[in-house]
Amino acid sequence: SGLWALGGWAVGAGGGQRGRSPLPAFSKRRLGFAAGLECDLATNVVGQPLVRQQVVPAVREFLQNPHPAKPLVMSFHGSTGTGKTYVSSMLVRYLFQGGLQSPYVHQFSPIVHFPHAERLEQYKENLKHWIQGNLTNCGRSAFLFEEMDKMHPGLIDVIMPFLGPSWVVYGTNYRKAIFIFISNAGGELINKMTLDLWHAHKDREEISMQDLVPAISKAVFENPQSGFWKSGIINDSLIDFVVPFLPLKHHHVKQCVISELVQQGLEVRPGIVQEVADSIPYFPEEEKIFSSTGCKTVTSRISFFF
Length: 306
Ligand SMILES: Nc1ncnc2c1ncn2[C@@H]1O[C@H](COP(=O)(O)OP(=O)(O)OP(=O)(O)O)[C@@H](O)[C@H]1O
Hints:
Elements: H1 33-44, H2 49-64, E1 72-78, H3 84-95, E2 105-108, H4 110-113, H5 120-137, E3 142-145, H6 153-163, E4 168-169, E5 172-173, E6 178-183, H7 187-199, H8 209-221, H9 232-235, E7 241-245, H10 250-263, H11 270-278, E8 282-283, E9 290-291, H12 298-302
Parallel strand pairs: 1-6, 1-7, 2-3, 3-6
Antiparallel strand pairs: 4-5, 8-9
The structure holds adenosine-5'-triphosphate (ATP).
């Protein structure tokens, strides 16, 4: 995932105001964003129709409600390179002027922002103040937590109170925020269920959300390596949408190669597209159906072929 450094810990009320946007975040006209987002997702995100089906209506409904009962909390799960960061950055681009660079979008990565386990208490305090301060400044803020599986499990406890319905304090409405958690947690399970479908000669998109979502929640909650480990987030149903990202097949990787070539202004030669897609590892070992790294290494591989 791309790591997006914060402009330092300007903690406290109004913290994080790095160059005010001339437009209010989430201006009314942006409510019409959903059609654009839907098309952008359909055109540019390959092999993830379930994501589109969940994310677009979820965000649309949330924004149309002037008095949401709780913040919108989505958790993106899947193995590497399947598009979790890509989709979240696309989403904030539609919602906030400047996208990920907007002063109302806050991105956290455990390696960048919480690297030292012994400083957990300090991180907890900082994170709480950061969220509070920024929501006081603008209730319609977005918080992206990357690599939740690498996040210290204790840190999540501090976020939990913000995710529920109860937080309207001193005039600050904490219910209008958007929280997105991104992790590889549950990825193996998603891959296994998708592979089972393939063995049963069914399409990967026939995966049952009813089976998948509780299984992911269970796997994530019970994994001591996961930032969600034993946290109340899952038990208290604080996550509104558990969004699975399916493993990508060879033809999806080819589409990624084509998009990348077009974006770099390079000629789209079928031979090159095939070669780049073939150079990526696939699993399972024998059948080689799904890309082990999704589309993640496509960009760097293309340079080898030119
Ligand atoms: N489903 C997809 N459709 C189109 N492009 C994709 C897709 N998935 C990944 N990509 C491409 O691969 C790059 C890396 O993907 P991304 O960072 O979103 O993966 P991720 O799921 O967040 O992986 P990680 O778990 O390693 O963070 C993206 O910038 C995009 O160019």
